[in-house]
Amino acid sequence: MDERKIMNLSIKEVQYAVKEGNISCEEITKAYLEQIRRLDPDIRSYLHLNESAEEEARALDRRIAAGENIGTLVGVPVALQDNIVTSDMPTSCASKMLEGYRSPFDATVVKQLKKAGAIILGKLNMAEFGMGISTEISNQKVSKNPYNQSRISGPNAVGSVIAAKESLLAVGSDTGGELRKSCGFCGAIGIKPTYGAVSRNGLIAGASSMDQIGPCAGSVEDVAEALNVLVAYDKADSTCVNFEKPDYIQALDRGIDKMKIALPRSFFDAESDPLVSQSILRAAENFEKLGVLVEEVDIPNLEYALSAHYILSCAEASSNMARFDGLCYGHRTKDYIDFEELYKKSRWEGFGSEVKQRIFLGSYVVSAGYYDLYYKKAQKVRRLVKEAQEEILKDYDLILMPVSPCTALEIGVSQEAIRDAKTDIYTSLANMSGLPALSMNCGYDQDGMPIGMQLIGAAFKEEKMLRLAYRYEQMI
Amino acid sequence: MVEKYEMVIGLETHVELKTKSKIFCGCSTKFGAKPNSQICPVCLGFPGSLPVLNKKVVELGIKAGLATNCQITKYGRQDRKHYFYPDLGKAYQISQYDLPLCEKGFLDIHTEKGSKRIHIDRIHIEEDAGKLVHSDENGSLMDYNRAGVALIEIVTKPDIRSAAEAKAYLQKLRSILLYAEISDAKMNEGSLRCDVNLSVREKGSDQLGIRTEMKNLNSFSAIVRAIENEFYRQVEILEAGGEVEQETRRWMDEEGKSVGMRSKEEAQDYRYFPDPDLLPIAIKDSYRESIRESLPKLPDERKKIYIDKYQLTAYEAEQISMDKAVADYFEKTVQLGASPRRISSLMIGEVFRLMGKQNQEEDQRIPFSEEALCRLCQRIEEEVISPAMAKKVLEKMWQSLDDPDEIIERENVRQITDENELKKLAEHILYANPEVVASYRAGKEKAFQALVGIMMKQTKGKASPSRTTEIFENLLRAKEK
Predict the structure, then answer these.
(1) Any CB–CB contact under 8 A between B276 and chain A?
(2) Which residue among A105, A209, A363 places its CB closest to the CB of B271?
(3) What does the alpha-carbon distance between residue A462 and residue A116 come to, in Å, rounded to a whole number?
(4) Is B21 helix (H, G, I), strand (E, B) or coil?
(5) What's the whole-model pTM score?
(6) Contact check, Cβ <8 Å, B86/A339
(7) How far does A306 lie from chain B, in Å, by closest CA?
(8) Between A462-475 and A220-230, two packed helices, what is the crossing angle to 10 degrees?
(9) Nearest to residue B192, comparing CAs of B426, B360, B15?
(10) pLDDT band at B444, cuts 50/70/90?
(11) What ipTM goes with this model?
């Protein structure tokens, strides 16, 4: 098959083609690797490439030839964000602290993907330890936006790797909106599942009470295929929930009439670029054309989420970062007298400035004397923000709003400008509440940069947003 | 000057729980394994690893709380306690801060001065850290086998007022832990560790003085020595008009003194917050009650039975009931028909002494069966052997595990009870030792004992002591006439 044709196959089409023998896993893998060779020197999505990818593809082909029934993702190339641990490839979290680190175990999602027959192409760039708006905070390199290489790809390269067709499927993490923003900035589709739906075992923790792993792809159907594999109960993660999960592919075909969407317009109008707001309103109109009801609502307390989210995620991150000291793994300083000096120097050298800043702030807000004032208060705000979303979702199926107030920022923009952009203001809501949230393209700005819309739904009801997104996708 | 002061002590005891695997992962907890052979990404805290709570740990923690009369929480939480040290892989210990498993319990102890109630403030579950081993050639080496082993921390209120009380508390606590099979509680293996918080104040005052914390206490007797040393050290400071420095001190048992560890300007801030990787612990009433039902009869209960039913003295009852294995053994021999008082006297007198002779590292077990001891006891009752001879037989039983009857025959230690035989021997002794008899007539009681002693020697200890005494008495009185 022609290379271009291969890279336009959806996951379902790959399933069919492989089953029918029209294509081999090796061919698919080679096509994508060739694309990476062509584009990645510019786009810079990948931090590590799987040197055994073709060999693994050939091994899969042998098993298929032997009549083995492997899984729903057989032959599907996957790229993993570099904070998901892999035992056969380095995991660096884009940090000097973990440069070259080899995990002794595989993340649960890695095992799930491999069991389903997926082929891991490599590990994707991200902001160092997930802390930062763009990969400019990465130790290694800056990932570019395929739509315009002077713009960022987002907090990681998960969306851009899909937009550049450097992989068919990407799996990343979302603590304050990273996965969704990357999708939004690059025109891809991604979902942060309900907290507890996907195992966090093997995800290098940022903010443990908010992190979730989710899939990103070029179509809703592909995302649904990925969810079928990723959503599964895992005993190794105590926060993973055992619930009766639907078949997300089958759920796509169920009807969407009588669906009600809440539109907190005054909330997002306040901070969004006018073009972004307009795109959301246009999407709302299109939903209505599909027979769905869209109503403007006021949801209280949402504006407090961002600062509370920052306090809590810094607090948890400062704790999760404490284990990196160069003792058993990771960067170890060359000269030291005692363990105290070993710790101080290794950590100072290994962490970038953004990570250090968040560790300082995080330690401060849980320290004696400030705990009640900051951490505890932020937790109370969190409960209010969560309840506000849950309350609305009693009467509405989904909440619609932008992914970010703006489109992809320019590379090299100042840190102040980045903070002022408040790109997490809409995405942090779902991390605070644990509710599922989907990100999908709904238009372009005057420079042709993608605008992303966000659908937030009730806990463990991912199939509803997928259904609506599917119909919307078919309509556009 | 010492008399005007009293010591105020609170004890913090860490106890390793007797679970097969660690608190948050499936690694083995077996003691003495090769370094770093019982580890995994979870107990080492490798990136991406997550803890999963071992349910047995909660069960044993609740058991410990019930056995010490605590209130068991309905809703517990686990918190991260942050500090940096090489033996702590995650740089935080998962412990419990403000919602511990158990609270507000007590233990009743008995010392020479009488009974006393020591209040327990709280019991909580937490994970142990690894072990640092210092060597001259290799620097500091880390063994993480112990990292993640389940612990309970038992904290008393500052109710203890003497080293004797501290020892009695620890003995009682240990006894309960063994009874309920919560822990092996061996100080020499580190499954029972105790830190002493001690302050001094003038008798009659209700203000608490400044306290020090003492660590590195590796035996009950070391604790007693450390307490007495610290008390005097603090009294001296106060008497000289100084102030006790709040610090942690390390006890050096060989040198008989403690040294201050690097003291910090302010107390360590552990930045506690609830661990987001773990769910709260919800304890249903039915679960708690099912654990209560699984508790065996605890020492105090057995002690009462021994006193009421078997007429043991309080001291004897305390001694027998302290160790569950010993108490079970005792009860079985009584069931087999032995006289409780005689068994208890044999056990406390001889068996305990022999148990103490054994290597302290191993479990102290009585090597022969209850049935054998019961029979030995019966032989004493039947006057087949004398109580004194029984001690020798017992020692032989301990060494060779031979049957008591066999030993009695083989060693030819049957008691001579035949009156005529004894009378003949006695008459002969009196005839052969006129000076001793004269001494006795002169009023020296010791002379009588000397006569008995000669009889014993001549019969190689086989003469029945009671009969011998009776016979000599009769003969001497007769001769008087």
Answers:
(1) yes
(2) A363
(3) 21
(4) strand
(5) 0.88
(6) yes
(7) 20
(8) 160
(9) B15
(10) confident
(11) 0.94
